[in-house]
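Input (structure):
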């Protein structure tokens, strides 16, 4: 069978791989499976949004037809307004493209930047789908290791830049580590990228769950921001629209003209129903979303507050925020083996750090990601208890 070697050398989807670990297992009635592997809402959109979506399906014929490649004009306008209010920016719809999820936003952005043989700097632990897309396109992912605080260092990044470097990618709040990058650090990476003629891609999928009130950075204060910065956003987490695939790119209009070519050949246009739902959410769900944020932040607080039993057994809480806790474990075995052991002995499905780091990386072998946004505070306590009870 003839296959593109770039694909055969790309890692399999990690979440799907982890799901196979639980196939065929009958978990004890008193110890049901706790799934903290996937960072996505498991509940549907709120009922009022679903009612609005049903009305759109029944009464809006245009919702069933092709639409503009870069997205509904009304949604682009509304998202620009939302960003301007949140960040104190002055964007227009011309700076916005709507995509079929934030993964596509990343893929489309990179398609305008990097050709086979080029390089992109990714802090580790990285978001595995970013690495997978680069691998499939024969673009080299250059790992930028982070320390115990999981904060990337601009000086270390500068040392990795070569004539083939095209972009630096930041994710904040971070997936998988949960940490939030300070505004000064983000600005330092913007300055580094600009000084070398690179793009700074900042993926803010989880920005609606940032612990800081107000703007998490000041990139849009710069009148020339769009010569360097590309922001990515997702409606999936904020409004539980994961199955409808709605994301966005914020960039210079000239770049979006190139993005349009990519999107037209892949999806032609984002799914109309999801776009209408996102527009309705921006206009009607501000208070509801604020409540969702409070709940996610409360779960992060519960993870931090309840971590002592694990700390006593040699675990470390390296990062905690948005949907994620990132842990260092005390076991001799690498995390990919430990994660499968957790399924068998603790009925906990979590992802190992090896899925977020280069092959053979010693840091990844000692780390685990726990996506806690889909378990309540009692579930967090039970997860900690089960991990703490695992014999060394």
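Output (sequence):
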């Amino acid at each position: 069978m003839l296959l593109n070697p770039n694909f055969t050398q790309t890692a399999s989807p990690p979440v799907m791989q982890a799901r196979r670990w639980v196939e065929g297992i009958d978990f004890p009635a008193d110890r049901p499976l706790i799934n903290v592997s996937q960072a996505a809402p498991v509940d549907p959109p709120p009922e009022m949004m679903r009612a609005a979506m049903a009305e759109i399906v029944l009464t809006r014929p245009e919702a069933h037809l092709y639409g503009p490649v870069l997205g509904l004009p009304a949604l682009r306008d509304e998202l620009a307004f939302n960003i301007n209010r949140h960040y104190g920016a002055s964007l227009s719809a011309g700076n916005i493209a709507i995509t079929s999820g934030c993964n596509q936003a990343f893929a489309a952005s990179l398609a305008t930047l990097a050709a086979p043989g080029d390089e992109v700097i990714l802090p580790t632990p990285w978001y595995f789908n970013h690495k997978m897309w680069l691998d499939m396109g024969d673009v080299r992912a250059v790992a930028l290791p982070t320390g115990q605080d999981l904060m990337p260092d601009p000086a270390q990044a500068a040392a990795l830049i070569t004539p083939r470097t095209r972009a630096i990618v930041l994710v904040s709040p971070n997936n998988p580590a949960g940490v939030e990058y300070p505004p000064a650090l983000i600005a330092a990476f913007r300055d580094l990228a600009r000084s070398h003629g690179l793009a700074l891609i900042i993926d803010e999928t989880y920005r609606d769950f940032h612990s800081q009130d107000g703007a998490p950075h000041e990139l849009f204060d710069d009148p020339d921001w769009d010569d360097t910065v590309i922001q990515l956003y997702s409606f999936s987490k904020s409004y539980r629209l994961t199955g409808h695939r709605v994301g966005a790119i914020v960039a210079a209009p000239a770049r979006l003209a190139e993005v349009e070519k990519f999107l037209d050949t892949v999806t032609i246009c984002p799914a109309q129903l999801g776009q209408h739902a996102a527009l309705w959410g921006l206009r009607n769900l501000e208070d509801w979303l604020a409540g969702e944020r409070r709940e996610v932040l409360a779960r992060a607080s519960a993870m931090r507050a309840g971590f002592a039993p694990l700390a006593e057994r040699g675990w470390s809480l390296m990062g905690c925020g948005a949907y994620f806790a990132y842990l260092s474990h005390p076991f001799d075995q690498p995390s990919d083996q430990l994660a499968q052991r957790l399924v068998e002995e603790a009925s906990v499905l979590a992802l190992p750090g090896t899925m977020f780091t280069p092959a053979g990386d010693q840091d990844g072998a000692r780390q685990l990601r726990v996506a806690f946004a889909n378990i309540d505070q009692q579930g967090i306590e039970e997860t900690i208890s089960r991990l703490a009870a695992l014999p060394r």
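Notes: The chain has a mean pLDDT of 95. The domain at 47-285 is CATH 3.40.640.10 (Aspartate Aminotransferase; domain 2).
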